[in-house]
Amino acid sequence: MRGRIYGIGVGTGDPEDITLKAIRLIKESDVLVCPRKDLTKCRAYQIAKQAIPEIGSIETLAFEFEMTRDVYECKRNHKKIYDIVKELVFAGKMVAFLTIGDPALYSTYSYIAELARRDGIETYSVSGINSISACANSLGMPLCEGEEQLHVIPDTENLEEFLDLPGTKVIMKCGGDMRRVKEKLKKKRNISVYAVSECGTGDERCYRGIGELPEDGRYMLTIIVKTKEEKD
What we know:
Layout: E1 4-9, H1 20-28, E2 31-34, H2 43-51, E3 59-62, H3 71-90, E4 94-99, H4 109-118, E5 123-126, H5 131-139, E6 150-153, H6 159-163, E7 168-171, H7 178-186, E8 191-197, E9 205-208, E10 221-227
Parallel strand pairs: 1-4, 1-5, 2-3, 2-4, 6-7
Antiparallel strand pairs: 7-10, 8-9, 8-10
Helix pairs in contact: 3-4
């Protein structure tokens, strides 16, 4: 009998944000898959560990999910990881991928799940609190109101083009040149800029205004740009 694969979102950092469903399925899993070889540096694993102290007794496979823009290299890495997981599933194991945030939003798990579905393997996703909602709530502000649009920008490439979009813009994974990002933001009129770094952790910090943004790029930094309403 074949096993199955779960993609389990563990939220952004606060272990109290993990759902009861996620906790139950992690405990029921035969094997956990984590996106960092060094589990002490794996954010998803460390979040889950705080909520499930006995997680150390569950067999865990730790891979280094390489961050690269090379499409072919990404596909090769995903296939390599999937081939290992596939053998476990065919052996009847329940395999759970731990992912920060939500598995439906820019998660490596989604690529593994697609390969699994092609082989007829059952896959299931368990929602986690995503960084977009978490950051807005930490700032105490709504993402959208009324007919306001929401645009999610995955990186800082072509930023000027994206900033021209109407409504709220959320810029994720700001690990690049923050000085360049800030200069582009300064050129735009009628915008309000907010950001949160290390959301959900003890190091969380909220920024209000371009001047407060850090100079150094940080992977776990999310910027929210809202268009100001022009007064008549």
